[in-house]
Amino acid sequence: MIPVARSHEAYLQFVVEQLHLQYGESKAFLQQFYADLILWITPVDLSLTSSLMKDQYSPNPKGSKPRDPTDLLRSLLLMNKLHITKKKRKLKKPKKKGKKNQKQEPNNPNITEKLLGRIQRQGQIHGIATVSVNSLIPMPTGVGTVRRERYFYDRHLYMFTAADSHYHLPLYPRLFKASQHDAVSWVCGYHEFLHWYPQWNIGEMILDSAHDASPIYSCLESHHVSTIIELNPRKATQFTYNEMDIGLDGVPICPIGRKMMNWGKEAKRYRRKWRCPAKVGKWECPHPCSTSDYGRTFHTSTADNPRLFPRVPRDSKEWRNRYKLRTGVERCVKRQKIDYKLEDSKGRSSRHWNIRIYSIAMCQHADAWFEEAKKQKLSSLDQWFAANQAA
Asked: Theoretical Cys-Cys bridge with 272: which of 83, 134, 209, 265, CB 3.0 to 4.6 Å?
């Protein structure tokens, strides 16, 4: 049977009592060394942990009495914040690895299309309602392969991050096999994300070139999600669409090799109009392809080919600015791996790594709350003692 959990107010009062017991009236010492930590843990209310986990406890426990899971979680977060951990074991060098900065090709090139087709046929991907998240960024990193000449267990961390967040907050970390291709990890992670957060509204997805697959574009477009995906240089060539050559930036190229001019779009349909560069620039074309005084026109639509013609054109400044936000996921992972020393662990199991990753993610959110509280002038430690003693 799960023990009765104390409220957050009771926990803060317990902290006050213990600080008085251990340090007496040494407020100057606490102010100098522990003030930030005390104020950091104050808004982190974990009192619902026990009610969420009550089904995991036996009604007739045997042996030692179970401890309060809320207190255990509080202790775990504080241990992560103070970097109390054990160093990891040395691992053997993998038998083979990819070239430097080269993305691994999937063993099955059609696996992404097959997985998305299966999920859509089963009707397990649904529309999304409303919430305040605008962009997500997945990022594979090394908890299971070679990175910076260090070796890890056979897993990699795939992170969905809020792109528009000033603090680059993690939204959905996920561990996958290190041998799994990034596009496959995205399919699994995105499907799970929609399952756990059906009320969230995703407005934009920013991905690197490993996710440059037509089924991913089609899936996101069917959910009305704008895509900012870099073209894979090994797949990117000049395309032909409706007998018109299309450049890598999605701009039609006229028969004499000149880029056509953007002449506006229909915002609701994401349909863009292009005009003859000679007529717009008022110069004579050596080989005119239209007898009209207006010149030849051409239309491209995101619905027809979301990979070639995304909602935000690849040749635009807006696309480049949006894609720069993808670096936020690098900072998010850096916070986990460097600031919170994710890799300094002795664990091997996936359960251990998942608990460690999610507890660090919770600390990242607590850090953001603390930074926001700083902007509103934090109370002094004396005021904190007085407030929580009264509580």
From this structure: 265
